[in-house]
Amino acid sequence: MTAIQGTALVTGASGGIGQAIARALAARGAHVVLTGRRADVLEPLAQELRGRALAIDLAERDAPERLVEQAGEVELLVANAALPATALLDDFSVTEVDRALDVNLRAPIVLAKLLGAQMAARGHGHLVFISSLSGRAASPRGSLYSATKFGLRGFALALRQDLRPAGVGVSTVFPGFVSGAGMWVNAGARLPRFVGTRSPEQVAAAVVHAVERNRAEVDVAPVGLRVGAVIAGLAPELSARVSRLLGDERIAEQMAEGHRGNR
Ligand SMILES: NC(=O)c1ccc[n+]([C@@H]2O[C@H](COP(=O)([O-])OP(=O)(O)OC[C@H]3O[C@@H](n4cnc5c(N)ncnc54)[C@H](OP(=O)(O)O)[C@@H]3O)[C@@H](O)[C@H]2O)c1
To answer: Would the pLDDT of 160 be above 90?
Structure first.
């Protein structure tokens, strides 16, 4: 097991995937700083991992700045916090649209700006963004979520080029459907039998791999979904037609219904 040095700041560490990422990084020697809104989940986890818990609502305008101030010197950022933001655009209030953009896209960008500058000055560090296969392929009721997840992809790919000369790595991780814990499970939606899932621990292993190998992008999904995402990138209209035949409308409806109270 290769060590990951220094402090790792993990956003969304109270969630299903964030907890697994925090455990994986702590197991590799990182000092973890865990953030989310639920202090009652963060604090026992931080105690168990000998890290620190900072409860902050990333939808607040100055939250990323406050988080950076309180976190101290950070060697690794894992920008993982997100809202599911899955529904017809018409069903979101403008306040809800703003909140999803703030948590899923603005906060990672501002955190990367502040922490990336510090890392560049030191000549090392790594920024990891947790996107989604919805950041490669669009699906029904995913307009807002995909806007944030596609957005992270473009942001990270460009930033990687800018920070490379300074010795700072930038990676994006793209999970498909994640079983066991997390926003997909919480929605209570059902997948057709032929669609496979991955565990939060596999997403965490992908984060470690991305940092240790300085990978630009890592997908965490069965091969069928990964191929589907590539085809969706090349031929989105064809991909949407095939997905409709496979029942993606029904899955999207269940997802939106399951997250009605979490916007
Ligand atoms: N689960 C999947 O199938 C799946 C698939 C692809 C990609 N992803 C991505 O994986 C990442 C983690 O998702 P998950 O499945 O672990 O979801 P989750 O269990 O719902 O966790 C979401 C995390 O984001 C935090 N968060 C939400 N709103 C926040 C806010 N306003 N301020 C601060 N923190 C906030 C939550 O903190 P509190 O609960 O404490 O507020 C929680 O820790 C997300 O980026 C998601 O888009 C997930």
So the answer is: yes
